[in-house]
């Protein structure tokens, strides 16, 4: 068992020990829990019930949700896998798509606010000028919420293989099944569910921009006890954000470079794609590695993904282009075309 930091957002302002735990999570562990982030336990229970309904509904009902014009754009895809799902479909289940859209929009906003609040706290912890991270990288962040359904993972396979997230921050709510693990100093540790909390892990971009001072941690999922649902929220940079490293962290450049050399190979023995950022914008990176993910993706997994995005954030080519989300097919697709994880 490893002692992952647990931070009470309501106490952060007044408590030195909470700030120290946040610093440990940010710079040493790369994973931490947060409490009091916005949704009540009753609301989270409802989120779980609705998500189970979405995943057990017929294709026709899922298509209804995918074509519903509400607060968010909904779509579905399968992550790459070979074996069949055992999950049962209920042909009589009717989805309340309006309610689903509204409830998940609330969750989306609460997670987005928490992510931005954390970026502000990171600025304080790192003693940066106010707005240094938020203004440069997240003035209009590209955000995405998933409902991830993992079947009980077949022997010898992974729910999702070991990987580093690519964006700035990932905020994850998980059900009580367990199965998430993170690597710390070469060993793997479970991240057990703690009711009502979010799990935060730092993405490859935040790590890169800070010369590795903010730590990205490898993680993986195996739902070995039974099926599992999790809700990761990906806080990515604004489309126009420039991929520049911050000089305030240059003192760590050499050490980070050495670490990078060691980690260019992932557990599958393949190069981890999309982890070199150059000096373009997030839009450049997104067009290369998200829009055209198929040719770059290497990780494998055994999961179905329900993806929710703000329609306005789907613009890739420019503000006047038609959103790519509006022309997506409304069915489970395989292989996936996204690599947010
Ligand atoms: Fe991930």
TrEMBL record:
Keyword entries, A-Z: Iron, Metal-binding, Oxidoreductase
One GO MF term attached to the UniProt entry: metal ion binding
Family assignment from sequence similarity: Belongs to the iron/ascorbate-dependent oxidoreductase family.
SUPFAM superfamilies (UniProt xref): Clavaminate synthase-like (SSF51197)
Pfam families membership: 2OG-FeII_Oxy, DIOX_N
Name the UniProt record assigns to this protein: Fe2OG dioxygenase domain-containing protein
The organism's taxonomic lineage, starting at the top: Eukaryota, Metazoa, Chordata, Tunicata, Appendicularia
The keyword Metal-binding is assigned to this record: yes
Originating organism: Oikopleura dioica
Ranges where the Fe2OG dioxygenase domain occurs: 140-237
Domain of life: Eukaryota
